[in-house]
């Protein structure tokens, strides 16, 4: 579920959903819909103090501590852009938060030619397709709907069209079969 609170991103998301089975657009907050997981377009350290991350930190009071602990334990304190991890929100719905950094540092402004939205989206989709929860269950068995806000479109300054084009490319890469030789 691609979510947008502003019209330029909602319009850009429509191009991603068009012709891609399983992709829908929601005009409104990720917190307005029923989903098992939400995507946090975080920074690599896991601090959740600005943008969409701050919204999540207010909605799920313990989630920043879960993200920071996982980043420290599993990635030595820095979750690289292009990687993702899943942590519990501490709430029944959504139960999970997928942290997928679009910024290395909090407050970073991305250049116009960035590929960070693509890398973050690809990490989220690969995690859903191939990842496992701490109890060993496949992520895709516990998560049927993922609510995704714009990736880098807030604090990072990425244009909605750029984000949408890159999310579409990530979707196509992760869910398209590789040609056989």
From TrEMBL:
The record's Pfam families line, in alphabetical order, gives: Macro
Q: Which InterPro entries match?
A: Macro_dom (IPR002589), Macro_dom-like (IPR043472)
Under what name is this protein listed?
Answer: Macro domain-containing protein
Output the SMART domains linked to this UniProt entry. A1pp
**Domain Macro residues, every copy:** 10-181
The highest taxon in the source lineage is: Bacteria
